[in-house]
Design brief:
The structure is a single chain. The chain has 5 helices and 34 strands. By secondary structure, it is of the alpha+beta class. Helix 2 runs antiparallel to helix 5 and helix 3 runs antiparallel to helix 4. The radius of gyration is 45 Å and the shape is globular. It comes from Streptomyces siamensis. Keywords: Membrane, Transmembrane, Transmembrane helix. This is Pyrrolo-quinoline quinone repeat domain-containing protein.
Length: 544
């Protein structure tokens, strides 16, 4: 009997393992690869099922073996001998399973003793039932404890914040979209506006606005027949941008305000005389500022109604103007001298005036309104050709030569000095950042000068590539657009000039740069506008 119990126990364990493995495989196919806890619990369930089934089988066999023979001798033979024969048959099977001949003899002897003992199956049945119930409770407790105490290795499906250090590495930047070049080969666009989720490209034939995520055309403003866009405000404040049209060999004299949300023309004004001065258009909050033939004028950006004007003195000419919401800067030349005037943008009241260090005809451009920074270049080859900085009261603070030991500086359009390439220096806190041509025939150095006294603070050199544009990132870093043999890339610098990463896109053939690109940081990436296409470079493309 002991051997039979041992054999049955082994069979139960083997059946439990097989059933548990089968249940685990089914769960794997249905839900994917389970964790260790799941596998253990599923195997345990299978073991319990087989264990209980084994106990039930043992109980049935025990009751059948212990019950008295009530069928009688149907053959007329001796009933005790028939019972002995039946028991012998059952025990013989057990003996074969145990592979022990002696066990069969023990089984016969046990059967003879059972016939002599009082016949009552009820106590055996109750004992078997009690043992099964006890085994069931014990197994449930074991599985419950396993569930509660097993270390959790299942994936946690609750929403949690994941640290960046353990996150997947970001995908390699790529050219998300691009706009093919249009127009003639050397057509030069007047500018661009970055408007959050939209970028507006100025072309000679009008304006086109693109969504920064997909490059879809949001709106467009075509130029009138036989007219070209000849001027564009550096920015678009409070949802209004300014452009101007002009005919061939005619003044740039048609001023238009455009609502940047949908491209609607808000108003149009036809300027008198020689029209708009080159570099004389600014968007100052709700005020449109223009340097015209005979005056500096301010109009409502929404309606075009004139708010104030400042007439030019006899013999004076406008040279440049720009504005923000609080201040307007205006450069005028009277004879051989010139001066910088600061006015309140809302009222036109003069804040201060500063004579410029020039003694001949001078070209000028406003680099920054606040703080005040100008680019000036005299006709006199021994005269002033420099970037000039001023404090809040108009006192000179910094002078950065356009050509000198640090190289030739990239300057705004209309300034005949420096490298001959067009670009806008970047004001970064108390620093003035410039692109400088030193060893190569293209700009190859970023130089930072202090606006407090003009001394050089740091420089960043790029070997064998061209530095083409500067921009400030939303997080405060400095973005430098460079041109390599593989196409456009972006170098990210901190405020001390140390490199903090690069954006090297795939599909570099779609990121080709022209000789006058502009870099516009946008949410989730950058947009580059090529203001001139010489060899089929895309007009606009996005790096994400």
């Amino acid at each position: 009997m002991r051997a039979r119990a041992a054999a049955l126990t082994v069979a139960v364990l083997l059946c439990g393992a097989v059933i548990g493995a089968a249940v685990a495989l089914v769960a794997t196919g249905a839900r994917g690869t389970p964790g260790a806890t799941t596998c253990a619990l599923l195997w345990g369930v299978g073991l319990i099922v087989a264990f209980l089934a084994g106990f039930a089988v043992r109980g049935r066999v025990s009751r059948w073996a212990d019950a008295p023979d009530t069928t009688g001798d149907t053959t007329g033979g001796n009933a005790p001998l028939d019972a002995v024969d039946a028991v012998d048959a059952v025990d013989a099977v057990d003996a074969v399973d145990a592979a022990d001949a002696v066990e069969a003899a023990d089984a016969v002897e046990a059967a003879e003793k059972a016939r002599a003992a009082p016949k009552s199956a009820e106590p055996s049945w109750r004992g078997t039932t009690a043992r099964s119930a006890l085994a069931f409770v014990v197994c449930l407790c074991l599985v419950g404890g396993l569930w509660a105490l097993w270390p959790g290795d299942e994936p946690d499906r609750r929403p949690t914040a994941k640290a960046s250090a353990g996150a997947e590495p970001p995908a390699k930047p790529t050219v998300a979209w691009h706009v093919a070049a249009t127009g003639d080969r050397y057509d030069e666009g007047p500018g661009a506006w970055g408007l959050g989720d939209t970028v507006v490209q100025g072309r000679v034939d009008g304006l086109s606005a693109y969504g920064v995520r997909d490059g879809a055309v949001r709106w467009s403003v075509p130029a009138p027949a036989r007219e070209a866009v000849c001027a564009m405000s550096p920015g678009a404040a409070q949802g209004v941008g300014l452009i101007a049209y002009g005919k061939h060999d005619k003044p740039c004299a048609t001023l238009v305000a455009v609502r940047t949300s949908d491209g609607r023309k808000l108003w149009t004004r036809h300027l008198k005389g020689d029209g708009l001065t080159a570099g004389g258009l600014g968007s100052g909050g709700s005020t449109a500022v223009t340097a015209e033939d005979d005056a500096l004028r301010a109009r409502s950006a929404e309606t075009g109604t004139e708010r104030w004007h400042r007439s030019l003195a006899q013999g004076c000419e406008p040279r440049a103007a720009d504005a923000d919401a609080a201040r307007t800067l205006f450069v005028e030349q009277c004879g051989s001298g010139a001066r910088l005037i600061a006015l309140d943008t809302r009222t036109g009241r003069e804040q201060w005036t500063r004579r410029l260090p020039v003694e001949s005809k001078t070209a000028a451009a406003v680099v920054s309104v606040t703080p005040a920074v100008l680019a000036v270049s005299e006709d006199d080859r021994r005269g002033t050709r420099a970037l000039l900085g001023f404090d809040e009261r108009g006192a000179p603070t910094a002078t950065v030569p356009l050509s000198g030991p640090d190289g030739d500086v990239v300057v705004p359009k209309g300034i005949p000095a420096g490298t001959g390439r067009e670009g806008r220096p970047l004001v970064y806190g108390d620093l003035l950042l410039t692109l400088t041509e030193r060893k190569e025939l293209v700009p190859d150095v970023v130089v930072a000068h202090s606006l407090k006294d003009g001394h050089k603070v740091w420089e960043y050199r790029t070997e064998g590539v061209s530095t083409d544009a500067l921009a400030r990132e939303a997080d405060g870093r400095i973005a430098v657009l460079i041109s390599t043999v593989d196409g456009g890339q972006i170098v990210l610098l901190d405020g001390s000039g140390a490199e903090h990463g690069r954006i090297e896109p795939t599909h570099a053939e779609d990121a080709a740069l022209s000789i006058r690109p502009e870099l516009i940081p946008v949410r989730g990436g950058h947009v580059v506008v090529n203001h001139m296409s010489m060899s089929g470079e895309p007009a606009v493309f996005s790096l994400r």
